[in-house]
Amino acid sequence: MKIVYKGKTKDVYDKGDGNYLLKFKDDVTGADGVFDPGANTVGLTIAGVGKSCLRLTKFFFERINNEGIPTHYVDADMENGTMTVKPAEAFGEGVEVILRYRAVGSFYRRYGKYCREGDLLDSYVEVTLKDDARNDPLITDKALEMLGIMTKDEYQTLVQLTRRIGAIVKEELAKKDLELYDIKLEFGRVGEDKHIALIDEISGGNMRAYRGQEYVEPLQLEQIMLAE
Questions:
Q1: Is the per-residue pLDDT at 40 higher than 80?
Q2: What's the confidence (pLDDT) of residue 37?
């Protein structure tokens, strides 16, 4: 298979049959040997973390597919730590969508003058550009349209899908006595009709969850969610 892209936590291969293969790695983002899912550099390697991310991603993508929500997911090979996906066209050079249920993280750092940490939010959706050099800046729907990254109709579809997906993840976490505070998703255009679909992964590093007042680390979250 031809390698298309070497990423921080996944490599992408062209299968030659119209689909792509994502190879999940044991490298995780962070700095100085400390795991940080929000970091833009690889910080350390943790044995087994790639397959852990893949298992949770497989669980959520199959659950989301069953709800009729479009994704790029085809199937997963747990033994080899790979996932087969449909090709997807990025919005610009990539956007990230953050769905927030509580005021924590960067939301609280920006708007802490007007809220308390942990305040409830009404399924608030933010979009950022994937741009490490500029620390993934926030962008509005109008700016996305003006810059030719996506149309207003695409933006509205993206917001609706984000809230539907977030509700599914929130429901599944609640079954394990976990509360979803926020989640980061990625979307792309898939198929000849270029419909908007969920892409990339859904793992512990994509979300912030709590059990009561205690923050649950991403790797611990995956262990809890995948426990029989």
A1: no
A2: 66
